[in-house]
Design brief:
The protein has 327 residues and is α/β, with parallel strands linked by helices. The protein has helices at 11-22, 59-62, 80-101, 138-152, 175-182, 201-213, 232-243, 255-272, 280-286, 296-302, 310-323, and strands spanning 2-6, 26-30, 45-48, 67-70, 107-111, 158-162, 165-167, 185-189, 195-196, 198-200, 221-223, 230-231, 249-253, 290-291. Helix 3 links the parallel strand 4 and strand 5 (107-111). It is globular.
Length: 327
């Protein structure tokens, strides 16, 4: 297949490229000549100049392509309007480009997020593809709008993939957690253990490609995640053991303190003009007790199964961070 991957220079997108190449597909990606191509260097991929905010510039990207895997999106922004542009408008523009320059496209795969659905109500009831959509952040709301425009594009065969939190080699988003544990410290939010779904990036990339290639996946939505749910003390203890830190000093932050800190950091971030890594909405996200989802539909319909255990995934991630001097 000839596959276009947006966001290919990033964490998840570059791993999707790796899986596609391993399976013998031809890969094209969109990037400016000034983009950081560190994860794609030396790989048999084709760069096309273009912008997701200029439909006409996407002609060379989407022409003669069989499958589009749309990974690109914003996970941090200064305000909701910025999220709207990066998540909704970019998706709409890409769909418009497909209509204009490749109306016979075989599949459009949109990478969404668990944030579109929101947290589960309890540890016994993980959200699934039939759960109502109740996003609690601007990120979740704008990813929902992106899903809406994909579903409305009935002329384009599409599939939606929703990952939860993702970790693995090349990731900078959860690096702080690993750095903290490497210092012998484990910081938890609230006084009750929180359950999370967590997916290693290699499992996610493999699941995305499975969904892209499956005829049964047309018109469907799937959660690609770990089959198990984890608690942060469990994750921290395993990370500490991998790093040789058998005894971690635990610090628990009350929810009120987390929200207060998040509000201050978000305000300072707005003043600096840079997207804040933490704000009040992200604080609300962090205090939720159950960010968990079911993989049952993906397992039964497209043959997805978690292959990377938590221990294997953490070990690989720590080794990669260490080799690349991120730890």
């Amino acid at each position: 297949m000839n596959v276009l991957v947006t966001g290919a220079t990033g964490f998840v997108g570059s791993h999707v490229v790796d899986v596609l190449l391993e399976q013998g597909h031809s890969v094209r990606y969109i990037a400016r000549s000034t983009s950081n191509l560190r994860w794609l260097e030396g790989k048999d991929v084709t760069r096309v100049d273009g912008s997701l905010f200029d439909v006409n510039s996407l002609k060379g990207a989407v022409e003669d392509i069989d499958i589009v895997i749309h990974v690109a999106g914003l996970t941090a922004a200064k305000n909701e309007q910025e999220f709207l542009r990066g998540n909704f408008e970019a998706t709409r523009n890409l769909l418009d480009a497909v209509r204009a320059y490749n109306p016979g496209l075989a599949r459009f795969v949109h990478i969404s997020s668990l944030a579109v659905v929101g947290p589960a109500a309890s540890g016994d009831a993980p959200v699934d593809e039939n759960s109502p959509l109740r996003p609690i952040t601007a990120y979740g709301r704008t990813k929902k709008l992106a899903e809406d425009v994909v579903r409305e594009a009935s002329d384009i065969p599409s599939t939606i993939v929703r990952p939860p939190a993702v970790y693995g080699p090349r990731d900078e988003a959860v690096l702080t957690f690993f750095q903290t544990v490497s210092k012998g410290l484990a910081t938890y939010i609230g006084f009750g253990d929180k359950s999370v779904s967590l997916v290693h990036v290699r499992d996610l990339a493999r699941g995305i490609v499975l969904a892209a290639m499956s005829e049964r996946a047309v018109g469907q939505t799937y959660f690609i995640s770990s089959d198990e749910f984890y608690t942060w003390p469990q994750i921290a203890a395993m990370t500490g053991a991998v790093m040789g830190k058998r005894r971690l000093v635990s610090v628990r932050l009350p929810h009120a303190a987390v929200l207060g800190i998040a509000g201050i950091v978000g305000f300072v971030g707005k003043l600096s003009g840079k997207p804040p890594v933490l704000n009040y909405e992200k604080g609300r996200d962090l205090i939720q007790p159950y960010w968990i989802c079911s993989t049952q539909k993906a397992r039964s319909e497209i043959g997805y199964k978690q292959q990377v255990s938590l221990h294997e995934g953490i070990s690989e991630t720590v080794a990669w961070y260490t080799k690349n001097r991120w730890l």
